Each structure stands twice: as C-alpha cells, then as structure tokens.
Amino acid sequence: MIVHIVEEEKFLKSVVKIFEDVFPGRNIYLVGLYSPKPVQDLHGIVDHDRVIYENIGSREYIITFRKIVKKASLVIFHNLYKEYKLKLRAHMDDINKVAWVFWGAELYNLNKEINNLLPLTQKAYKKSLPLSVRFRRLFLGKLKRHYYWKQLKKLLKNKIDYVLTNIPEDVERLNKYSENNSKSGWFTYFSFDTETVSINNQINKQHILIGNSSSETNNHFDIFEELTVKGIDDRRIYIPLSYGDQHYKRIVIKKAEALFGENAYPMVDFLSLKEYNDIIESCSVLIMNHKRQQAFNTILLAITAGCKIFLREENTIFSFLKREGFLVFSVQKDLMDKNALNPLSVEEQLHNIKLAKELYSYNKVKNKIKEQILEILGE
C-alpha cells in the first residue's frame, strides 16, 4: 500500500487521479485540514473511499496516521515544509520506504542562507509591518524556520529514501546546503490533455500576468517599478493574490492600483481551474519575478497557452526550461528590450507547445511516475 501525506490543496484531485490510474486500489490519501471546513469551502472535495480527511494536530489524525503507515510499503510526503510532517517522519519506524515530493519552500524558505527578496519588495514589506508583527515575523519567524531547517537536514541523512522532483537543479542546491543521503527521483504534478491545446486568437491575447500568490517571494514591488518605466499601454495587469500573506496582499493591491490605476486587476478570490485558465489564455506575457523556484504549474499552463514567459535567472525553473529547449526569457536581460512585451510569434508558440506536448502529456507523465514508483518499491 502507498500512503500519501498531503494537505487539502488544489492539486489533490490530480494526485488521486494519476495514482489511481497507475496503482488502482493501492493508495490511501491522508488529507490534513488546518480547521474544520464545510465541503463547499474546500478547493475540491475528493469523494473517494481511500481519501481520509482529518484535522492536523488532532488525536484522530495521529491515530489514523499510525494505523495506515503500519500497512504501507511506501509513504509519500507531498512537501516537508510543515512542522507536523517533520515530526511525523522523525517519529516513524524505519520499516517503510519514504519519499518526499520536493516543493521548494523546504529549501528556499527554511534555509536562512537564502534571501528570496529583492530590495524594493523587502523594503516595502518591512516598512509596512507594525513593530509587534515585524518582531514576530522577522525575528521569531526566522528562529522557527532555522529550527525546522535543522530538523529537515537530520531527516535527509537517513530518514528519506527518495527526493522526488522534475527539476534536478533543485536537488543540486539541496545537496549544496545539506548532507543529503537520499536518492533522486522524478515527479511532477503538472500534465495536460494534449487535445485541448491550441493557438489562441492573437487579437484577444494582450494582457500581462504577474506572480502566482500573495507571497513576498513574488517580488511584486520590484517588477512593478520596471513595468512603470517601460509602460504597459492599455493592457490589464492580472495579479493572483488569492492565497498567502493577507497583510502583503493589501500593500500589493494598494501599490498596483497607485501605479496602474484601472489597468490593475488583483485576483483575490479563489477561481476554478477553468476560470484561471481563461485569464491565462487572455495574456500574452507572464512575468514571475521569484528568485526561488515557484509556480511551476502556472508557468507550464502559460506555456501551453502560448504566453511569453519571463523568469529570473536565479530561479532554477529558468535554467531547467532552457535546458529542456523551451523558449523563455530573462527578467534581468530581456525585459527592458523595447519589444519585450510583444507576444510570441505563432511559430514560437508552436515550438513551446509542441515541446510541452512531448514532455508533459498526461500519458507521458503517468508512465514516468509509474516507472519511478515501481523502482522505489523494487517491483
């Protein structure tokens, strides 16, 4: 049996679908909730007899966890960023094989040696925080993250069998900062139905999407400044802010509206996947100003929608996509070109879409995940 330790997240349905297609009837999904929620408030309730919802930290969660891992041949932690997951793994017996699906925050947010913020965003964020909040987040928060990072490094020595990601550059960075004795394996949450991909009408494809959340790691303030210098004409600036830091969300909205007026479109409500895709498909340009790896799914969705992608060169996704052959652009080197915000040509869009079809079609991803899990299980 394969046990999945996950939170209630928007990707949950896709995880259940792909693992039930590959290993039907062999999975149990323990889904952690941070507070009791009515079904309609969940990102997407999964009605499946092998999906178990429990409140994180509750007695029922611990009892369920201990019960199901006794029967498991493999336990997959979908991220190890959360404190409770680090504790669960630390106190597990070593009878199970354990895989960790790397998200990025485990390395880039916990490791104090890595600074994810650019100057304007860092200054605006710190300045806006009340003194008591600043102390709690910037000082006590650092202490907590440092403690969690130390715990994660301990696990990497002998408690994690496999680190799973489709971006090898992230494992290289993980190895740089830790004594990682786990093996590397392949996994991604992203795939798509190739039949639905097409070139969209260029006349209706003109807007710009910036970032993926209300996290300061998006470095909104720095990219806003660059766009005000460059000018956006009458384009909409879509800014996804539906999850993350609520305080940071407010100051981003205030700044965006001050700089771009009616052209600023903060996205503060959770959208269905179709609604989100419709907005991406109306955009010709996607700008991700993260220094760290983040928002891979959104970036691939935008690639398959024919968007022009700008990423920072420090971001491992930039070097990864370039190495795979995708046409992507540098925030530092390419964005200030006078034609930077022009859409990709049809030929350039077709190049990226064809490559995405070859690498990330649902069947391709499904088969690679199956091969990887069979290797871990020794089957």
Automatic annotation (TrEMBL):
<dbReference type="GO" id="GO:0102031">
    <property type="term" value="F:4-acetamido-4,6-dideoxy-D-galactose transferase activity"/>
</dbReference>
<dbReference type="Pfam" id="PF07429">
    <property type="entry name" value="Glyco_transf_56"/>
</dbReference>
<keyword id="KW-0472">Membrane</keyword>
<dbReference type="GO" id="GO:0009246">
    <property type="term" value="P:enterobacterial common antigen biosynthetic process"/>
</dbReference>
<keyword id="KW-0808">Transferase</keyword>
<dbReference type="InterPro" id="IPR009993">
    <property type="entry name" value="WecF"/>
</dbReference>
<keyword id="KW-0328">Glycosyltransferase</keyword>
<protein>
    <submittedName>
        <fullName>TDP-N-acetylfucosamine:lipid II N-acetylfucosaminyltransferase</fullName>
        <ecNumber>2.4.1.325</ecNumber>
    </submittedName>
</protein>
<keyword id="KW-0997">Cell inner membrane</keyword>
<dbReference type="GO" id="GO:0008417">
    <property type="term" value="F:fucosyltransferase activity"/>
</dbReference>
<keyword id="KW-1003">Cell membrane</keyword>
